[in-house]
Amino acid sequence: MFLKSLNDTQQKLFLGLAQQLIEADARISDQEREMIYALSAEMGQQELIPDPTDDVLRTWFPDHGSRTAIMLELIGLSACDGRVAPEESRLIRRLQKLFAIPDAEMKAYQAWVKKFLTVKNEAAAFFVSSPARRTAQPTPTKATAAARQKTAKTAKTAKTTKTAKSGKTTKTATRARTPKTAPSRQAAARKVASPQKPSSRKAASRTK
């Protein structure tokens, strides 16, 4: 969130500190791994400077703004999995002493990070389908159930009646068309198949 303002070397040093932080307790949680990947992607930085010394950190983070940025991110990284290991706390205190951050300011950082992670988790929950968060449907009473059953029965009866009427209409229409069309085809067939007889006048002429 605050790391884009850092220069290239500062970003690499921060990632070195972040890597040192999540490995401090010899246990890397999924949340820590995902967060450090997200921070790396946010900066567009894939390289790190491992285990930076105090002199290097003091030189490359000389101002209050850059120090505040990495402290807020490191506090968030240490608490993202719901627990802060003693080894992680020691690294945070080392940086607090190195940057001469007053206790009151440090407590303010930690309180802000706690609120931020709470809001972030609440927002993430919006994108997860959970039966517990679905609106509970009211339990139908006996009267409501009877009314629904009656409505369903009425709808079924109406559908059956409509289907019966539709079938009757189709059947009647088919019967009405069949006699009208069939004789016409039969007549046409007879007309083609039956040769014309010579007229009586031509027959008489041939006899003569």
TrEMBL record:
Biased amino acid composition, Basic residues: 199-208
Gene3D superfamilies registered for this protein in UniProt: TerB-like
Compositional bias segments (type: Low complexity): 132-183
Region (Disordered): 132-208
InterPro entries: TerB-like
Full protein name: Co-chaperone DjlA N-terminal domain-containing protein
Record organism: Candidatus Ozemobacter sibiricus
